[in-house]
From TrEMBL:
High-level lineage: Bacteria, Pseudomonadati, Bacteroidota, Cytophagia, Cytophagales
Protein name (database record): Glycosyltransferase family 4 protein
Pfam families in alphabetical order: Glyco_transf_4, Glycos_transf_1
Record flagged with keyword Transferase: yes
Residue span, Glycosyl transferase family domain: 197-346
InterPro entries: Glyco_trans_1 (IPR001296), Glyco_trans_4-like_N (IPR028098)
Residue ranges occupied by any Glycosyltransferase subfamily 4-like N-terminal domain in the UniProt entry: 92-175
Source organism superkingdom: Bacteria
UniProt keyword annotations, A-Z: Transferase
Key word Endoplasmic reticulum present: no
Amino acid sequence: MQVGFEAKRLFTNFTGLGNYSRFIVNALSEFAPENTYILYSPKIKSHPEVDPILARPNTKAIGPTGGFTFFKSLWRSWGIRYNKSVADLAIFHGLSQELPVGLPKHVKKIVTVHDLIYIRYPQFYNPIDVAIYTAKVKSACRRADKVIAISQQTANDLIEFIKVDPGKIEVVYQGCHPIFKTKASADIRAAVKAKYNLPDKFILNVGTIEQRKNVKQLVEALALLPADVQLPVVIVGRATDYLKEVIACAQEKKVMDKITFIHKASFQDLPVIYQLATVFVYPSLFEGFGIPLIEAIESGVPVITSQGSCFREAAGPDALYTDPHNPQMLADALNHVLTDASVAEHVVRSSAAYIKRFEPAVIASDIMQVYRKA
């Protein structure tokens, strides 16, 4: 069977959607090697994350040709259908909420939808972007034979907000990058600790510093901890204007001296930062899935996250959950983990068993089942 992918972000994005694209293609090419996988992308370029995928004999990339080399965006959304390879496809899978138009009728169309946060929380987005994203996902879901939601929460949102037929939706989770499975040596841990001037013990948060991620609640909870329990907080993520609110809160609560911001951590260093942490806190208001939770669990760190949304799907029944609007509840959970080693050990051990369902072999099997159903 030949499977095509809309794979722009596989080649151009080295965070969320790009990581998902590479994870899926890697998993399928390894665990369903009998198929041929064709990556359609307006840009095809070498990168250490991409080259091993293209080195596999069952995977190849195709870019625009002819006049479309000057109109690459048009080729991605409209011109792919003219490539002669499309006639031999059994499946075309849009990995990032989009499908090109005009694909042949015999080709079964699959689209992965990651989240509809821009519909649920439009106040966090530019109105024009909301309109564009909404139109694209509605069009893709209407034309798809099957819609893959990366969580039950996303499946519910598809049904609620854009009225997708529940019979078209299949929930298939995602896994994290394999780099998080490698345990760093003592020397590497020491080097990363020195590079970022990290404390011996600390509370970690990872994610863009924006309002939806709600890191200000962690600052408020830190201030509520008993003085002998307070640990430094390390916040890793790209800054937005919301950072000003976080800093103002930390200054007001008199805990600014306990907070370290790292805005440009190397992706290669990130697993080591996780492994050095004492506890991982993710107080986000809403996510499509919450990959940092799996990254933390893979790294052997106890997790505290929010109630609701998809968080229990990602972190499992044994992580600790708090109301994302209640800093005292978060402070109590932190106090519990930081003062009782048995609690932390239980969370780490049980959560590690839970996330085995996100292994590449499992995900590849689940994706292949969706293809067969289509």
